[in-house]
Amino acid sequence: MSDRAVSVVRAGALTTVQDLGRPGYAHLGVPRSGALDPAALRLVNRLAGNGEDAAVLETTVDGCALRPRCAVTVAVGGAPCPVRVDGRPAAWGTTVRVGAGSVLEIGAAARGLRSYVAFGGGITVPPVLGSRSTDLLSGLGPAPLADGAVLPLGAASAVRGSVDAPPWPGPPDELVLRVRPGPRDDWFTAEALRAFITRAYRVSPASNRIGLRLEGPALERAVPGELASEGMVLGAVQVPPDGRPVVFLADHPTTGGYPVVAVVREADLGAAAQAVPGTPVRFVRVR
């Protein structure tokens, strides 16, 4: 392997390779996947001098540690976290130069859940259906990082991006999700639909890249029985038999047999990706 590579010293709880995903394959049963916080991915790629769709690392909760085999420009964004190079503090939210053989440590998220690590030249694992993203549901793309793994890097650009301050809003104290009702809101009672919009939910610890699971009032169905499996979209709010809504995120299934009460605007899903367990959630109906 070329010296333009990075070795994994500590993989962390869940660190995956992500880009902007593989849209356009739902008819084949393939989810979009990609970074759960695409704005954070675009920002770190800009800082590292990459195109916006270059592959980066998405860490979960406790970060990771990496050893580049060559000198490389790195940018860390998304959830704020400590960054160290060979044990010395380094900057979060801007570019850092890491020498060959040095250890880059991405610490635990201080706020939010997911941090993003871009390397100049991007991570160049083989693409699958046009994307290098790890899809946990279908198993497409590279496996989640493991200690000792080696990731190839592309050729670095001579251009370096910069911003005065990272335009990242941080994780929400309250997650407000704008929704359009349907397509199966008529499967729920009027009281359930009122509760969905007026009552507060909380993010469940059972949430993952597939869906944001919520704790709170159960939504009572007006229509009993089974629903034929139908297509699911990013942001669909599916209601399983226990009545607690699940907001589908990037690795969601492309079909499902439970009714969808509403669909969250895609622009709100980046904040959902950073909402820690226990975060209050409120749905707001829009046209």
From TrEMBL:
Keywords: ATP-binding, Hydrolase, Nucleotide-binding. It holds the Pfam family CT_A_B. InterPro entries: CT_A_B (IPR003778), Cyclophilin-like_dom_sf (IPR029000), PxpC (IPR052708). Residues 27-287 form the Carboxyltransferase domain. SUPFAM superfamilies: Cyclophilin-like. NCBIfam families: urea_amlyse_rel (TIGR00724). This is Biotin-dependent carboxyltransferase family protein. It comes from Streptomyces tanashiensis. The lineage of its organism: Bacteria, Bacillati, Actinomycetota, Actinomycetes, Kitasatosporales.
